[in-house]
Amino acid sequence: MSEQPKTGQLTFVAPRRAKPQRHLADLTMAERRAAVAELGEKPFRADQLSRHYFTRLTGSPEQMTDLPGALRERLVEQLMPPLLTSVREITCDGGMTRKTLWKLFDGSLVESVLMRYSDRVTMCVSSQAGCGMNCPFCATGQAGLTRNMSTAEIVEQVVAGARALAGGEVPGGPGRVTNVVFMGMGEPMANYKAVIGAVRRLVDPAPEGLGISARGVTVSTVGLVPAIGKLADEGLPVTLAVSLHAPDDELRDTLVPINTRWKVAEVLDAAWKYAAKTKRRVSIEYALIKDINDQEWRADLLGRLLKGKLVHVNLIPLNPTPGSKWTASRPEDERAFVRRLESHGVAVTVRDTRGREIDGACGQLAAAPQ
Ligand code: SAH
After folding, report:
1. Among 182, 183, 240, residue to substitute to test ligand 1 (most atoms within 8 Å of Cβ)
2. Ordered structural domains, the chain, with CATH
3. How many CB atoms are located within 10 Å of the residue 9 CB?
4. Which of 128, 183, 241, 293 fits a 20 to 30 Å CA distance from 313?
C-alpha cells in the first residue's frame, strides 16, 4: 500500500509494480486474433471467445460449448485469467445501489458502484488503486496512489455489473448497463492509455466490445489539461466531467491541488475546446462545502465563467469522509447557489447522490478491508 501524501503533494506517476496477466479485454480484435494465433490456434477462435465474454458475459469454459474441451481450458487460462475477486458487496436503496470491494491479483483493493434508476443503470468504476491527486475532501485521495489499473481490470468491473443485471441479481428484473462513469477511485487522466483502452472496449459493438453508447460514458478529471486535449482528439463522443469545486485559483489551489499546475482558466479553456470538438456538453462537478466554496459571490463568479458555454453544472452536497473537518452546505445556501448560477443562464442540477450510507457515494471510496 502507498503512504499517506503530505498536504498538496501530487503523484503523477504510479509506482512500478507487477502487472496483471494479459486478458482478452486488454486487446483489440486484431490483437486477440494474433494472440490466439501465437498459441497455435485458428484466429476465428478469438471471435468465439469474444462472443462469450462480451456478448454472453461468460468466462467459464463449461459454457463455451462451441470450442473443443481442452482448447477452452487453455484459451481461458491464457486470455481470460480471473482479474477481480469480490471481497464484499454492500447494497442500499432496496438493492438498487450496490458497492463491490474487489481484490486485484496483487492484493490491491478497489471499489465499483452499480446504481439502478427507473430509466438507466450506471456503473461507477475505478481506474486506479488509490489516487495521487490528493484532494483533501476525498477519501480516495487521502490514501495515496497504489497503482494504475489495466484496461481489462477496468472493463471487468463493468462486465461484472452487466452479468449481475443480466442474471436478474439486481431488483427490477433483468437489465443492462447503459451508463459508465469513471468516477470511482483514481484519476482516469493519470492512467490515460488504460482508460482509453477501456472506453474503446465499452463502446465497441459486440462482440469486439460491450456496445455501450459513447454518450453514456463519462470521464471525470481533476483537470489534467494535456490529457483533456488528447481525449478531444480521440474522436469518441464521451462526456467530459471536470471536478472544479472552486471558481478562483486561490481556493482551488487548496481544494484540488492539481490547480497549482493548471489554473482554472486553463482547465476551462481545455473544457471548451473539448466541447467544441465533440459537440458534447461538459459537466462541471462542484461539491458544495459549508462556508468554504458555497458563498453567493463564488456562485456569481462561477456563473460568469460558464455563461453561454456548452456546460452543465452538477452540484454535489459534500459527502462525509473520515477525518474531514468539512460538511455539506446549509440547504438555504445550496438553494441560493443554484439560483445565482441560474441567473447567468447556466444549467444546474443538484446530484441525487447515491450510496452515502454504504460509503459508496462521491468521494467516499476508500476500499478499506473492514
Ligand atoms: N479523479 C477524478 C475521478 C473521481 S470522480 C475526479 O476527481 O474527477 C469523483 C467525484 O467526486 C469528483 O468530482 C470528486 O471531486 C467528488 N468528490 C470527492 N470527494 C467528495 C466528497 N466528499 N463529497 C462529494 N463529492 C466528492
Report:
1. 183
2. 24-80 (1.10.150.530), 84-358 (3.20.20.70)
3. 12
4. 128
